[in-house]
Amino acid sequence: MAQSTGSKKIKTAVFISGTGSNLQSLIKFSKLKKSPISIEMIVSNNAKSKGLAFCKIYKIKKEIFNFKNQSTTEKELLLKLNKNKIDLICLAGFMKILSKNFIKKFKGQILNIHPSLLPKYKGLNTHEKAIRNEDEYSGCTVHFVNSKLDSGKIIIQKKVKIKKNDTAKSLAKKILVQEHKLYPRAILKIFTL
User: Fold this and answer.
1) Global pTM?
2) What is the DSSP letter of 7?
3) Sign of the C-alpha dihedral, residues 74, 149, 105, 21?
4) What angle do CA 188, 141, 116 make, to 5 degrees?
5) Which residues contact 3 (CB under 8 A, 6 or more apart)?
6) Which of 114, 127, 143, 180 is catalytic?
7) CB within 8 Å of 190: residues ≥ 6 apart
8) Is 145 inside any structural domain?
9) 3 in a domain, yes or no?
10) pLDDT in tens, 136-157
11) Domain housing 87
C-alpha cells in the first residue's frame, strides 16, 4: 500500500475570481505524488465564480469574501488562513489587489501567475498591449507577490510566439495552455530541494 505523504505537503490556498482553469490544473498537480502542495482551501471574491465548482468536485473547503471593506475582509481572511495552517497562497486569476499589510502579515509565501513576460505589461489587458505593440513574443510569468503590482521576484517564465493573425483572444488561449504547465513547474522549482 502506498504511504501517505499528506502530512508533509505544504498547505495551500488558491485565490480565484473567474473560471478557475489554473486552479483546476493546480488541483490535478497537487494530487501527484511528486507534488509538494496540498490544496486545503479555495478563496474567491466572486460568489458566481465558475471555478468554485471545483470545491464540490474535489471536496475542498471554499471561502467567499466580498472585499467591500478591504481591511476588515483581509483581517477575517488572515484568521481563516492561520486557522487552516496555510503556508502558501497561489493567486490564480484573482482580480483583487491584496494590501501591503496583508502581504506583510501573511507568514507564508504568495505566488501569482501573470499573462505576460514581466516586467512587461503589468496589470490588465496584457494580450491587447502585446499585439498593439507588435511584439514578437508574449507569454506568462510566475512570480512572488510583493507590495507592488506584478513586481515581485520572477520564479519562471514561458515565451509564446505571437503570429501575424493572432488576436488578443487567440493569444490569450495559447498563453493559458502554457500557464497550466508553468504554475506547477514554478511550485516544484521553489519547493523541491
Assistant:
1) 0.94
2) G
3) positive
4) 160
5) none
6) 114
7) 109, 111, 155
8) yes
9) no
10) 999 999 999 999 999 999 999 9
11) 8-191
